Amino acid sequence: MATTTAPGTAAPAAGPPARKRKTVLGAPLWVGLLFLLPALVLLGALVVYPIGYTVWRSLFGANGSDFVWFDNYTEIFTGSDTQTALKNNAVWVVLAPTVTTALGLMFAVLTERIRWATAFKLVIFMPMAISMLAAGIIFRLVYEADPERGVANAVVVGVHDTFSESSAYPKAKPRPKGDLAAQKGGGFTTKATHDAGSPVALPLVGIKPDELSDAQDAKKPSSAGGEGLVGTVWLDFAKGGGGKPGEVDPGEKALKGVKVEAVKDGEVVASARTASDGTFTLDAEGPVQLRLPASNFTTPYNGVDWLGPSLITPAIIGSYVWMWSGFAMVLIAAGLASVPRELLEAARVDGASEWKVFTRITVPLLAPVLAVVLVTLMINVLKVFDLIWIIAPGSSMDDANVLALELYLSSFGGGSNQGVGSAIGVLLLLLVLPVMYLNVRRMRREARR
C-alpha cells in the first residue's frame, strides 16, 4: 500500500549515503590491501608460519612423531647444559648492554671536548664494519695463551714483569748426588758448610745448551786471599759429552745472573749474583751454607687463561663490547647534539660542577636515547651465537654456552633433538617479547608528545 504525505508537511529527508572506507591518500581500502599483499605473504611465510611451526614442533619428541606435551620445556630447566646457557644469558643481558651503553655515553661526551672528534668517532665505530665471524677470529688470536702470539697476555706479562722479577733459569736443577739438595718451597741449598778458604762449585743441569748459545764459558772457581767466599755456577754439560761431573770443563757454559745466598743459622748473611763467567764472591765468614733461592728457577709468568672455564664468558663479552661501543656512541652523540646548550651553560653559571651537570642534566635529558640503546642491545645479546662459536675452544665451549648456541647444538650439532631445540627457540621468543613490548610502549609514548 502506497504511503501518502499529509498536506502541508514536508517529506522526510533521506539519510546520508554510506561512505566507503578509504586509505589516507583517498584510494579505496582494497587498493591499499592489494599493495600490502606481497609483504603480508612474505611476513606470513617467513615469520608467522615459522613461529607457529616451532611452537607446534616443541611439543613433540626428538623423532617428531611422539607428542610429549611440555617435556621439552621441562628438560630445558633441568638439563645441566641448558641451565648453564640460561645462567650465561642472564650474565650477557645484564653485563654486555650496560657496559656497552656506559662506554658509548662516555665516548659521546668526551668527543665533544677533543679537537679530532670525527677521527675518534671513526676509530671507535670502525669495528661495526667487521662481521661477527671476523671479530671472533681476531679475538681468538688476541686471547691466545702464548704471550708471543696473544696480545692480551703479551700486555699482561709485560706489566707483570715490570714490577716482578722474572726467573733466570726455570728448568734448572742440581746434578744428582751432588752437594746441592732441593728445599721445601723451591730453591737448592748445599748439604755441607763452606769457608772462605775453599772455592765452591755449584753445578746445575736441566737447561738446553741451545738456550745458552750466547753465554760465556764458565771459569773455574779460584780462591785469592781476602776475596771472601768464591765459587762458580754453571751448566755441567757440554755438547758432545765428556768431562768430569762436578768440575768445570772446557766448553761448559756459565750461568749469568744467578742469585747466591750465604745462610748461617737460618739467616741470610750475604748475597751476590753470578758474573758473566759464572763466578760469584760472597762477603761472608764461614762456615755457611750456600743457597740458590727459588726465584732463580720458578716458571715464568705466562699471563691469564682468558679462554679457560672461569673467564671465557667475560672474555667474549669484552669482544662484543669492542664491536658495539661505536654503535652506542653514535646514537648517544646524536641525542647529545639535541640537548639545549643554554641549560648546560646556565647550570655552570650557577656554580654546578661538571659532574653535577653531567649527572643532573645531561643524563636525564638523554634518558630516552639511553633506553633505545639499552633495549636494542638487550635484544641483540639474546641472539648472540657466532662470537661464542668462534672464540670459545672446545674445552670451554660448555662453560660459554648460551641459549642460541644450545639451540643449534641440540638441533643440528650432534644432539639431534629438534624438539628441545624448538622449545629453546620458543623460550628465546618469550624472553624477547617483554623487551619488545617496553620498546613499542616507549615509542608510542614519545609519538604522543
UniProtKB/TrEMBL annotation:
<feature type="transmembrane region" description="Helical">
    <location>
        <begin position="122"/>
        <end position="143"/>
    </location>
</feature>
<keyword id="KW-1133">Transmembrane helix</keyword>
<feature type="transmembrane region" description="Helical">
    <location>
        <begin position="365"/>
        <end position="392"/>
    </location>
</feature>
<feature type="transmembrane region" description="Helical">
    <location>
        <begin position="29"/>
        <end position="51"/>
    </location>
</feature>
<keyword id="KW-1003">Cell membrane</keyword>
<protein>
    <submittedName>
        <fullName>ABC transporter permease</fullName>
    </submittedName>
</protein>
<keyword id="KW-0812">Transmembrane</keyword>
<dbReference type="GO" id="GO:0005886">
    <property type="term" value="C:plasma membrane"/>
</dbReference>
<feature type="transmembrane region" description="Helical">
    <location>
        <begin position="90"/>
        <end position="110"/>
    </location>
</feature>
<dbReference type="GO" id="GO:0055085">
    <property type="term" value="P:transmembrane transport"/>
</dbReference>
<feature type="domain" description="ABC transmembrane type-1">
    <location>
        <begin position="86"/>
        <end position="439"/>
    </location>
</feature>
<dbReference type="InterPro" id="IPR035906">
    <property type="entry name" value="MetI-like_sf"/>
</dbReference>
<dbReference type="InterPro" id="IPR050809">
    <property type="entry name" value="UgpAE/MalFG_permease"/>
</dbReference>
<feature type="transmembrane region" description="Helical">
    <location>
        <begin position="419"/>
        <end position="440"/>
    </location>
</feature>
<keyword id="KW-0472">Membrane</keyword>
<keyword id="KW-0813">Transport</keyword>
<feature type="transmembrane region" description="Helical">
    <location>
        <begin position="320"/>
        <end position="339"/>
    </location>
</feature>
<dbReference type="Pfam" id="PF00528">
    <property type="entry name" value="BPD_transp_1"/>
</dbReference>
<dbReference type="InterPro" id="IPR000515">
    <property type="entry name" value="MetI-like"/>
</dbReference>
<comment type="similarity">
    <text>Belongs to the binding-protein-dependent transport system permease family.</text>
</comment>
